[in-house]
Amino acid sequence: MKTTRVAVSLLFALAANAAAQSTPDLTGLWSATLRFSPDTRGPLIIYRISEGWRADVAGFTVPVHGDRPATFAFDLPDGKGSFRNGHWIQGGTATPVTLTPQGVRTWRGTVTPLDNRLTFYLPITRQADGTLRTYLRNPERNAGWFTRVKRIDVNGNDVRLIGPSGRGPDTTLVQGHYENGVITLPLRGGTYDFIRIGSISDTASSPFYPRGNPPARYRYAAPLQLDDAWPVATLEDVGISRPAIEQFVQMLIDMPMDSLNTLQIHSLLIARHGKLVLEEYFHGASRDEPHNLRSASKSWTATLIGAAMHAGVPLRLDTPVYPTMLGTVPADLDPRKRAMTLEHLLTMTAGFNCDEDDSTSANEDVMDSRGIEHWWDYTLTVSLVSAPGDKIFYCSTEAHLAGGLLAKVARQPQLELFDRLLARPMRMRNYYLGLRDGDAYGGGGHAFTSRDFAKLAQLMVNNGRWNGRQLVSADWVRRSTAPLRDLTPTQQYGYLWNSVVYDYQGRKIRAFFAGGNGGQVSMGIPDLDLVIAFTGGNYNDPVLFTGQRVYVPRYILPAVT
Questions:
Q1: Predicted model pTM
Q2: Which residues does 226 contact at the CB level (< 8 Å), separation at least 6?
Q3: Mean pLDDT across 532-555
């Protein structure tokens, strides 16, 4: 009898152990990353032999066209990259390459393509009813916004992410498996192997949190003085309350990452009286890492156009779009299109159909999905829904067409103009320009470091001057940042620049800003000689507006004396 009881107990133990193995404890923070960066990188050597110039990079040796650095151009086989106008072009972006002489027949530089990666986090917690709550956090694109995961179900090795599909009931959104401590899931861009990096309450170094969990106590320190044309000072030096800013930054650091909609600030910079006084990074972002600015890049397009005009490029606000871009105008061209000018493109009042639900429109997502190759040419064929100047419709392609107009009149690519007229004078070295039509995409998607992003607003606060040099005319600054049109009831639009009004110490002050999806803001407040810059990761989520709509008036402006 005793033997029987022992056997039964052993069977129960084995069954319990098997059940435990079939339903593993997955609570904790899980993370997975895929990298898509191009392989072509490293030292670039351009040297002269009897047959002409040659380029040596990443194991390739190819002939070079041109006879000096400004004209050097070459292509690697199989689309591995190319060099044009002093920029390395690869993966849809262009980045400057500085060539330095090594003797009389050799030039050296370094090719550094944009680091392209996607990271996903799965924070898994057990609820009172035994279910496992989770969501997908993706800092680069906020892909979890489109895959609204609510919980994770586990059955043996089978793993399912459950959530609503459209407006329907909860269903399986993603199906994967669990084995040997790894959750494998097919997500955007490929298959991800998630590894548990710690418990929810103890992940001291994970960039899932602003600065680990639990975070350290914040203590203010002035930004580093670097060779990037930013003079630095302390908060106290420029009349900003250190205790108030410390409290604000601590609030950002302490922000719990408990839902998909939690705000993700990646960087916060403040400058006053032309000096950088605050520089803080969160969620693993860093000083040297360029951040995608999305539509905030439009303001760079307007600024480049102003810089080109100031430098003598014969482009005017009344430059006609169609005769300039086409050379000859078709006899049957819509009369409204004949009247379209550069100013209409800059103010988003050109009138192009930009409906995201219309497959024939000039909406950038529509054009992407259709595989349109030549965006300038295609946009010119799109019908108008209003006469130029009548109404404002936010349309990224109009900003891109404005950049095309600049390149056409200047007879130089925007890549070269940007490098010469803005980047070099402002000591911007680590940037990536998104490309369309073989040139900079004027509608958005450039990547800049946060320090360089803040320079954009500082240049405008300086009335177009940088380090004593007039890069853009003061009149262009005034026009660009003026509240020319109502984009919303509370937000105005100038020449690809936004503006708003804040309450400050019993009076109204106007701020202008470059704004981009996800929470990208480079803001200038001339009345206070103040610049504020945010970068963030809340793409497509309305919480992205929190920086300029809530944090600036509630925490930053009250700290400024």
A1: 0.94
A2: 451
A3: 98
